[in-house]
Structure formats: C-alpha cells, structure tokens
C-alpha cells in the first residue's frame, strides 16, 4: 500500500513494433531497515527517508510502516537504465541508513522482529488500520510494483483481464519471504499469504470497462471492504493518479538484476496483451477462486514446486509455465530488446532458485542473522 504518488512509469505513449518508442516502465521497491548486529527490523523509516530525500529527492519516501523505506525509479525506456537506477537507489538508501547506524534488507517479510508493527501517520494508512483492525497487526511487507505507461483506462482494464492469468507465476518467480519474525513459515512467499487475508488484495475482478471496474470498487467501498473507492489495492490496477498500468503482486526481489528482469516480463505482457485488446480480445473470464488457488500454490512452494496454470487448469512445474509465458510474450521481448535478459533470469531461477531459496541456504549456513547479512545492501 502506498500513501504518496509515484512518478514511476509515467512517460510518452509509444508501443514496440509501431515505429515509436517502447512504453516506459518504472519500478517501486519497499525495503526493510535493520539493526546490523541483531538483524532485527528497526522503526526508523521516517528519519532515514528524510535523510535519503536530501540526496535522492522524491525517488525515496517512507512507507506503510516505520520499518520500511521505499525507492522508485524514474520512467525508463531501456532495462539497462532501469537496472542502473535500482542499483543507484538501493546503494543510496543503504548509505543513508548506514549514517544512522542501520542496514537495508530486501526481504518481503521481516526475517527477525517486527512486532508490534509501527504504522505510519498518513491518513490512508490510518484508515486501513481502522477498517481492518487486527488483520494489520503483522502487515509489514515489502513489495515490488511495476508501472507500464498505458494511459487509456479502458484498454488498461482489459489488459488487466489478460494479465490475471499470469499473476501466480509472477508471485512464484519473485518469492522472497520464507521467514517471518524469526520462524520459517514453510512458504516461499509468506508476504503473499498475509496479503490474501485482506478482502481487497489479490487478483482484480474481471471487468468489461473502466466504468465496470470503478463500479465494483465503489460497491466494495460501500460495503466497508475497501477504505477508498478511488484507490483500490488489487494486484493489477490502472493507477489512480498516473497514466500507467500497475502490477503489484511481487515480493521485492533480493537482487536488482532480478527486479529489472521481472519488469521486462511485465512490460512485455502489457505490450502483448494491449495488441490482443486492440484486436477485440478482452481477456479470459477466469474465476477468482481459481486464481486464488493458483496463488496459494505459488506462495507455498515457489519455483521448486508444481503450480496451477490458470489458463489450462493443469498442474505444471514452474519452468514449464515459464516456457509458456516466454512463448506468449517472446515477440514483444524480442522487439523491446529484453529477450536475453529474461531468458538469463529464468536460467538463474533454474540454477539457484528464488530469493526464498537463497534465504533458506543462508539460514542453513549461519542462522537467521546470516540471512539478513547475506541480503543486506552494501552502500
């Protein structure tokens, strides 16, 4: 959840293959602040964000809890540029945190500590606590959000209809939260499990148009399931204030190279599905129950397990579903110059797994403090 407007992903419209520039893409990443000695998360977000803003400007801010800080890239056309911004911003906030005697850890849940969760003072944050009560007690989670420039909101909603089928695979490829406050949860993405407990988080409903989408959000807000009708928190949404389609289901990855590769996947999906929408295909009508079941498999087993392919309704290993994804978006990846980057990312997943696998390997080597040490960003 965010309380401030980001510029990530805004930019001029152009689609690959139409003689113009590719659509711009931007990334937001949420990161935990930790004590370098104990590895525990620390309530220092406001002061570290204030220090970092003097260096990085509005590309850094506080987040839902005081345990976190958020970075956001400017809109980028090339993934090399996006990756460079992520490296610079991560190192920049790590340097500012170090001046406060703290570290920065890209894990999607707190590895050590985290209770009680200190919620930031923004009115939208407080409204969520008032509405959801104890569901927010452990809502300290760090995500990666990808914005792709797509200003036509009817097209964006229909593109979202197509993207819904691929959300569980995005969860699996970014799974980076096996530990929560000192225990191994048995899941690859415990962040996703926490989020699915809220009525407004998870896959969005199928919608015929932006007006249809808005009517559903308004009905949920009227029923008390959503704090603000104009700011739904579904895992795909036309951003309320930016001309972008935002995808929000991913754990924050451990490495910026992985974040850039995932952003490339999301942009290629948006480009591919935009062409389908413009050809009259408004997307498959997949049931919400089917998608939530597919999410659950992805959150538990991550890349190493079987998963439910929502389109075929078959149980398939993640690498097979990744192959189907590349078949689907390969043309767009080739046009955008991102095919090599994405294939290399899937090769890395095959060789060493996800962030969740990395965390468990570090835990076997040296316990929970070693997990935090291994992940922590060097200034």
TrEMBL record:
It catalyses: L-cysteine + L-glutamate + ATP = gamma-L-glutamyl-L-cysteine + ADP + phosphate + H(+). GO terms for molecular function: ATP binding; glutamate-cysteine ligase activity. Keywords: ATP-binding, Ligase, Nucleotide-binding. Gene3D superfamilies: 3.30.590.20. The keyword Thylakoid does not apply. Residues 1-24 are annotated as: Disordered. Its EC number is 6.3.2.2. ATP-dependent carboxylate-amine ligase which exhibits weak glutamate--cysteine ligase activity. Belongs to the glutamate--cysteine ligase type 2 family. YbdK subfamily. This is Putative glutamate--cysteine ligase 2. It comes from Streptomyces typhae.
């Amino acid at each position: 959840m965010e309380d401030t407007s980001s510029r990530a992903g805004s930019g001029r419209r152009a689609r690959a293959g139409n003689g113009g520039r590719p659509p711009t893409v931007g990334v937001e990443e949420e990161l935990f602040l930790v004590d370098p000695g104990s590895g525990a998360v620390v309530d220092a977000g406001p002061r570290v964000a204030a220090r970092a803003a003097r260096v990085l400007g509005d590309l850094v801010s506080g987040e839902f809890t005081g345990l976190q800080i958020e970075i956001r890239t400017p809109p980028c056309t090339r993934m090399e540029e996006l990756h460079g911004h992520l490296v610079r911003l991560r190192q920049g906030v790590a340097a500012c945190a170090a001046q406060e005697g703290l570290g920065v850890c890209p894990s999607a849940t707190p590895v050590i500590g985290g209770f009680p969760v200190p919620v930031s003072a923004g009115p939208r944050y407080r409204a969520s606590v008032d509405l959801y009560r104890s569901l927010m007690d452990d809502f300290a989670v760090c995500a990666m959000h990808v914005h792709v420039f797509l200003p036509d909101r009817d097209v964006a909603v229909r593109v979202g209809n197509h993207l819904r089928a691929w959300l569980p695979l995005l969860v699996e490829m970014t799974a980076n939260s096996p530990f929560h406050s000192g225990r191994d949860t048995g899941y690859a993405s415990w962040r996703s499990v926490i989020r699915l407990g809220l009525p407004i988080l998870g896959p969005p409903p199928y919608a015929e148009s932006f007006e249809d989408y808005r009517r559903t959000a308004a009905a949920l807000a009227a029923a008390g399931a959503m704090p603000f009708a104009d700011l739904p928190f579904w895992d795909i949404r036309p951003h309320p204030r930016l001309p972008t389609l935002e995808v929000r289901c991913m754990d924050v990855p451990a490495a910026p190279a992985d974040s850039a590769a995932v952003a490339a996947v999301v942009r290629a999906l948006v480009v591919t599905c935009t062409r389908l929408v413009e050809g009259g295909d408004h997307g498959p009508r997949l049931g919400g129950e089917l998608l939530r079941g597919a999410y659950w498999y992805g959150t538990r087993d991550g890349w190493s397990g079987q998963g439910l392919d929502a389109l075929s309704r078959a149980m398939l290993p993640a690498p097979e579903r990744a192959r189907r994804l590349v078949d689907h978006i390969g043309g767009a990846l080739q046009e955008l110059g991102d095919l090599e980057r994405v294939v290399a990312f899937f090769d890395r997943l095959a060789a060493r797994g996800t962030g969740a696998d990395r965390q468990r390997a570090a835990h076997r080597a040296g316990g929970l403090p070693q997990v935090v040490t291994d992940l922590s960003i060097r200034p």
